[in-house]
């Protein structure tokens, strides 16, 4: 199987009270799992069947005949990255190299937060908000549906999933509240630092 469903990097209750066990059961156990199953079905018998996920994403991007493969593979990648972008007792001000880089590239953590929240809340419909490294500089991007920085030559540092299934059971239509909680209580700055170094 080209695509696999990773275990969550914490137990399903670990992000409570911010993200409920029920949300993670649906989001990881149903949505993420479905992208894996559907993607593998579409890949069966193709030249990409045994390729790694990044190759599958790059080779299928922009190809109308492979849009289903791209959507499922990219969503497997995006979700795996999203789970790691959070941790129990996360959030708040960053530390280490990412803190200095945010200060240098955004003019301070508060400006970063404001820009990230704007991107996450103004992404129309389903999509993602990203902190990326682009040409040595940190930037904030938003992408619709399954789109991701990888296909733009950018390096993902962190992401927040703004598809409704990511937050609806816990926040209903209050996406701004979910983004505040993500930044204040969930962001995994250790993961961001690893991505910045790697």
Automatic annotation (TrEMBL):
Its EC number is 1.15.1.1. It catalyses: 2 superoxide + 2 H(+) = H2O2 + O2. Keywords: Iron, Metal-binding, Oxidoreductase. Mn(2+) binds at residues 27, 79, 161, 165. The keyword Oxidoreductase applies. It comes from the Bacteria. It is an enzyme of class 1 (oxidoreductase). Residues 94-195 form the Manganese/iron superoxide dismutase C-terminal domain. InterPro entries: Mn/Fe_SOD (IPR001189), Mn/Fe_SOD_BS (IPR019833), Mn/Fe_SOD_C (IPR019832), Mn/Fe_SOD_N (IPR019831), Mn/Fe_SOD_N_sf (IPR036324), SOD_C_sf (IPR036314). Residues 4-87 form the Manganese/iron superoxide dismutase N-terminal domain. This is Superoxide dismutase. It comes from Leptonema illini. The lineage of its organism: Bacteria, Pseudomonadati, Spirochaetota, Spirochaetia, Leptospirales.
């Amino acid at each position: 199987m080209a695509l696999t469903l990773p275990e969550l990097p914490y137990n399903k209750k670990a992000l409570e009270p911010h993200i409920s066990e029920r949300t993670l059961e649906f989001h990881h156990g149903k949505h993420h799992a479905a992208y894996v199953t559907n993607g593998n079905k579409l890949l069966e018998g193709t030249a990409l069947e045994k390729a790694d996920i990044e190759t599958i994403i790059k080779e299928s991007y922009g190809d109308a005949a492979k849009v289903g493969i791209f959507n499922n593979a990219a969503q497997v990648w995006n979700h795996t990255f999203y789970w790691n972008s959070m941790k129990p007792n996360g959030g708040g001000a960053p530390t280490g190299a990412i803190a200095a880089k945010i200060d240098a590239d955004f003019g301070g953590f508060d400006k970063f937060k404001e820009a990230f929240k704007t991107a996450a809340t103004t992404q129309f419909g389903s999509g993602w908000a990203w902190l990326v490294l682009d040409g040595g500089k940190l930037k904030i991007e938003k992408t619709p549906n399954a789109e991701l920085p990888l296909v733009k030559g950018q390096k993902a540092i962190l992401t927040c999933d703004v598809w409704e299934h990511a937050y609806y059971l816990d926040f209903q239509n209050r996406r701004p509240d979910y983004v505040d909680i993500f930044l204040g209580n969930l962001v995994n700055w250790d993961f961001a630092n690893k991505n910045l170094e790697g």
